[in-house]
Amino acid sequence: MMKDTTRIDHRKLHEVCLAILMKGGVDKTQAGEVANNLVWSELVGRENFGLLRLPVFLKRVKHGGIKCPCVPRFVECSPGSAILDADAGFGQYAANLAIERAISFAQSTGVGIVGVRNSNFFGTGAYFVHKAAEKGMIGLVMSNSFPKVTAHNGLAPILGTNPFAFGAPLRNGESLMFDMATSALAGSTVREHAARKKPLPEGMAVDANGKPITDPASIGKGALLPAAGAKGYGLSLMVEILAGVLTGAGVSKGVASMYKDVAQPGDNGHFMIVLDIFRFMELELFYDRLEYLTGLVKASSQDGKVLLPGEIRWQNYKNNLSAGIKLGKDTLGVVSKLCAQMGITQNLAPALQDA
Amino acid sequence: MMKDTTRIDHRKLHEVCLAILMKGGVDKTQAGEVANNLVWSELVGRENFGLLRLPVFLKRVKHGGIKCPCVPRFVECSPGSAILDADAGFGQYAANLAIERAISFAQSTGVGIVGVRNSNFFGTGAYFVHKAAEKGMIGLVMSNSFPKVTAHNGLAPILGTNPFAFGAPLRNGESLMFDMATSALAGSTVREHAARKKPLPEGMAVDANGKPITDPASIGKGALLPAAGAKGYGLSLMVEILAGVLTGAGVSKGVASMYKDVAQPGDNGHFMIVLDIFRFMELELFYDRLEYLTGLVKASSQDGKVLLPGEIRWQNYKNNLSAGIKLGKDTLGVVSKLCAQMGITQNLAPALQDA
Predict the structure, then answer these.
(1) Same domain, yes or no: A166 and A277
(2) What is the 3-state secondary structure (H, E, C) of B140-185?
(3) For the domain that residue A53 is a member of, what is the CATH number?
(4) Does ipTM top 0.85?
(5) Is the Cβ pair A246, B280 closer than 8 Å?
(6) pLDDT at B337
(7) Does the beta-carbon distance from A309 to B151 stay under 8 Å?
(8) Sign of the torsion formed by the C-alpha atoms of A202, A42, A145 and B137
(9) CB-CB: which of B83, B281, B292 is closest to A248?
């Protein structure tokens, strides 16, 4: 098989990502974990949570919105729960410490709960729930974010897109995982539409008078709507209460914008619940039972259209792991520009030629 | 003020409800808690989860779908978690035992997790999350149910309406609480539309070929759709995995229909997570911070249209507690018929005159 030279080996991409972060002022400790997170996002095909965000991260590092180095501190709340003060470092780094502590709590007590305050944007929650799944555990992970979503029947943006993620292990080492904005659209989807000058679907956003917006560029003057009205609104408040109110993090307007307030730590909050399956039943029995469920679900349409949450992510992962990652055009532009500016010599040339 | 004689004091309604349940073959232990649950549902104005369900409950009791008496048994999984085998009794009774145990776990370890298997329909999850909120705790409660919802992009009903409830205490003793079906519509809403011969909103249900259904009477030949597509589908699978797969309860088609399979225990599963707030922060500080959030949310529309989850429930509760409960016409019909059949002499006459 001919090697596709426009694809980049994930280890190579990790090297490049690490070099960019470190040249950009990120300490080695954080840079390593941030690179793990961003490259994983590329592997599963979530460009929006991958290296595309490097410029805003570095801007935040430069202006103080993300602290490097940082000294996160855990305060234990009970034998199976803790709050982590992230010291305004990277959300990806803090949330990784948090999920590892929650996993370790769950190993010793069956259940682990960790809340995080004084953090920043953490990327995709799927990364963290899969870390729990890899250990035979079920994970629930959520984060608040700066307000751009209305309350149900509200007009002004008052809640974040407040993502909620869930993951459960599958026998093959993958996981059933989802990571959803509790708003009708994710912020990253709006940015994607804006970049492509593509109108938003109807019924997803409103202006300050409650009139529908479909122009993604106008979203700054309006707000996204919660997913499914009262349901997404309720879920968003739950995320705000667990990740924000209960952890001591910023709440609603108390969370700074990743893009507009580059000098100000986000004060985002995260919240994680991890359950060690074998305390409840043998892991093999859990897999059998879960396969019974997923088998029925997959067979509920004859045309193969029913996918499990995460299914496409794992197809991407396997493909990108073996064939190399094909960076999106925008990401490739961003990465090559940063490499040029920073004098980073790792050779991305074959991939670049395709850009 | 003139007393509204068409309203029934909640204690009186409890007496009547208890008498009906016991005449219908329910043991005193379960009957007391089921009556608490049904009367609470009436107090907060959720007729669909109130005494309206008595006929189907009694039918299930008579034919063996709900076991009376039952001997539920806890198996402890870790110092803060357990599985309850409900022995095919009332879901309302089992879930109450479960939330009380989860609260007690949370009191001793900070976090309580209880899963329930071999149960039946448990009514509204809001009842249970509020029990946790009354103790200064946050509760998450979910239950699986028999399949009447498609997977995202699926055609056949394969998942339950799988409700998810959340509650957090407010300073005034009420709670911010929601209880949502993860499907586009709740089963009870479909029954309500069917009873009123009112068409369903578009985009909520499909027939076996995927064509939209709006006739609630045809839902038996089709299926409900998940709320917000992939989002509700993911949440529904989460509920099925936690409440069904992990507890050892029935999963998907393994859960029997409350209405069609009256001789067969539902084998529904429930799952509860309770967090004791004071382990994370002083309760007064939590209330302050939550009020900051709810204040901003309420103020996000000038017209007073933004309501907190549960707000209308608590208005109903206060009103019904002091003025008496005004039973819905259908419920009044059901209750008076049962009283007449069973020779129950508690005097509902003033309320009945209005029926």
Answers:
(1) yes
(2) EEEECCCCCECCCCCCCCCECCCCEEEEEECCCCCEEEEEECCECC
(3) 1.10.1530.10
(4) yes
(5) yes
(6) 94
(7) no
(8) positive
(9) B281
